[in-house]
Design brief:
This protein is of the alpha+beta class. Helices cover 24% and strands 38% of the residues. The chain has one domain (3-74): ACT domain (Alpha-Beta Plaits, 2-Layer Sandwich), CATH 3.30.70.260. The protein has a 3-stranded antiparallel sheet. Helix 1 (25-35) packs antiparallel against helix 2. The longest helix has 11 residues, at 25-35. The radius of gyration is 14 Å and the shape is elongated. The chain starts with 7 loop residues before the first strand and ends in a 16-residue tail after the last helix.
Length: 90
Amino acid sequence: MGLRDRPSAQYEITMRLAYPHEPGWIAKIAGLIAQGGGAIRAIDLVQIHQGQSLRDYSIECPSTEHATRSCGACGSWKASPFTPSPTTPF
């Protein structure tokens, strides 16, 4: 991996993702991010509500192009969208 292909905090993005609160989902998402050229810096749990996990993924990318690919890759899985209710705390 050349210097220009290494993930960098210079191109860091944060994605908020909702998916079923079941084993294996973090691994699936990490694989998609890696395929897009990103490196996970942090995963923060926002909340668990009605069987859905809502997490923020901080991702370092080598360029804005890789950041776009990482976002696109994560948008390609089949997860139900997170719809907060009026009583859902944020």
